[in-house]
Design a protein that fits this description.
Blueprint lengths: L1 H4 L5 H8 L4 H15 L4
Amino acid sequence: MPDQMLGHSTIAITLDLYSHVTPTIQRDAADAVDALLTVRS
Protein backbone atom coordinates (compact mmCIF):
# COMPACT_ATOMS: atom_id res chain seq x y z
CA MET A 1 0.00 0.00 0.00
CA PRO A 2 1.32 3.47 -0.82
CA ASP A 3 0.75 4.81 2.68
CA GLN A 4 2.83 2.02 4.19
CA MET A 5 5.63 2.52 1.66
CA LEU A 6 5.72 6.21 2.60
CA GLY A 7 5.70 5.40 6.30
CA HIS A 8 2.26 6.87 6.97
CA SER A 9 0.04 5.02 9.38
CA THR A 10 -3.13 5.63 7.34
CA ILE A 11 -4.10 6.56 3.81
CA ALA A 12 -5.83 9.63 5.29
CA ILE A 13 -2.46 11.04 6.35
CA THR A 14 -1.06 10.45 2.87
CA LEU A 15 -4.05 12.17 1.27
CA ASP A 16 -3.89 15.10 3.69
CA LEU A 17 -0.20 15.63 2.93
CA TYR A 18 -0.37 15.33 -0.83
CA SER A 19 -3.86 16.56 -1.75
CA HIS A 20 -2.44 20.03 -2.49
CA VAL A 21 -0.80 18.77 -5.68
CA THR A 22 -2.26 20.72 -8.58
CA PRO A 23 -3.77 19.10 -11.68
CA THR A 24 -0.89 20.55 -13.74
CA ILE A 25 1.71 18.88 -11.55
CA GLN A 26 -0.26 15.64 -11.68
CA ARG A 27 -0.41 15.81 -15.49
CA ASP A 28 3.31 16.57 -15.75
CA ALA A 29 4.12 13.62 -13.50
CA ALA A 30 1.82 11.30 -15.46
CA ASP A 31 3.38 12.42 -18.74
CA ALA A 32 6.89 11.80 -17.36
CA VAL A 33 5.98 8.29 -16.20
CA ASP A 34 4.28 7.62 -19.53
CA ALA A 35 7.42 8.67 -21.39
CA LEU A 36 9.51 6.29 -19.28
CA LEU A 37 7.13 3.36 -19.75
CA THR A 38 6.21 3.82 -23.40
CA VAL A 39 8.10 1.58 -25.78
CA ARG A 40 9.12 3.58 -28.80
CA SER A 41 9.97 1.84 -32.06
